[in-house]
Design goal:
Bound molecules: flavin mononucleotide
Distance between the termini: 8 Å
Strand content: 15-25%
Number of strands: 5
Structural class: alpha/beta
Radius of gyration: 15 Å
Length: 182
């Protein structure tokens, strides 16, 4: 089982990175193949809302804005399941997560039940390292995104500085369970 573990923080040693590492560890413990992607290492610009709002995403289900999105989109189509970890910024997902998920949603949601993510399980993690506020609003928007692309919520996990230790263990277990489910 091929799982893509996506993280979206500029910080390579923070809470987001720790959550992503635990998710990848859980996948591997269960015998799955974890491919770790750091969105902040890639050049994925925000959606340009081409033409009058829809570009090739609408009918061809591909993004016409050429950058690192296309190769990642190809990997996403092939994968069996996903873990998406974002830091909480202003109660929302980070800018790199938003840019990527916006563009992917346009390409896949327009396929309806034929979405290449259809029925595939997703674990979404919101890592709030500051006040601890905003985890739920962040996860709510991630849940909506999962529904739009017709994937399936496997788990939604909020993490803050105080819950760090036991939530890292929970993330590892959730990833293991997601692999074992198949
Ligand atoms: C622009 C910005 C907005 C943030 N907003 C929030 C927030 O709403 N709630 C919160 O608990 N932390 C907030 N933080 C703190 C981050 O969630 C925290 O630094 C988190 O640990 C980021 O993950 P990292 O450890 O991978 O950097 C914010 C940080 C930044 C840079």
């Amino acid at each position: 089982m091929n799982i893509i573990v996506i993280s979206s923080s500029p910080n390579t040693e923070g809470l987001t990175a720790a959550c992503a590492a635990c998710a990848a560890e859980g996948v591997r413990l269960a015998g799955g193949n974890a491919q770790e992607i750091r969105l902040n290492d890639l050049a994925i610009k925000q959606c340009a809302a081409c033409d009058n709002g829809w570009g090739t995403c609408q009918k061809e289900h591909e993004c016409q804005k050429q950058d690192d999105f296309q190769p990642l989109h190809a990997c996403i189509r092939q994968a069996d399941a996903y873990v998406i970890v974002t830091p909480v910024y202003w109660g929302e997902m980070s800018e790199s997560a938003k840019a990527f998920t916006d563009r992917l949603r346009r390409c896949e949601a327009t396929l309806g039940s034929e979405s290449r993510l259809s029925g595939k399980p997703v674990i979404a993690v919101a890592a709030a390292g500051g006040s601890g506020n905003g985890m739920i609003t962040c996860l709510a928007s991630m849940e909506r995104w999962i529904q739009h692309v017709r994937a399936r919520v496997f788990d939604l996990i909020p993490v803050n500085r105080w819950s760090r230790d036991y939530k890292l263990a929970a993330i590892r277990s959730a990833a293991q369970a997601m692999v074992q489910e198949r």
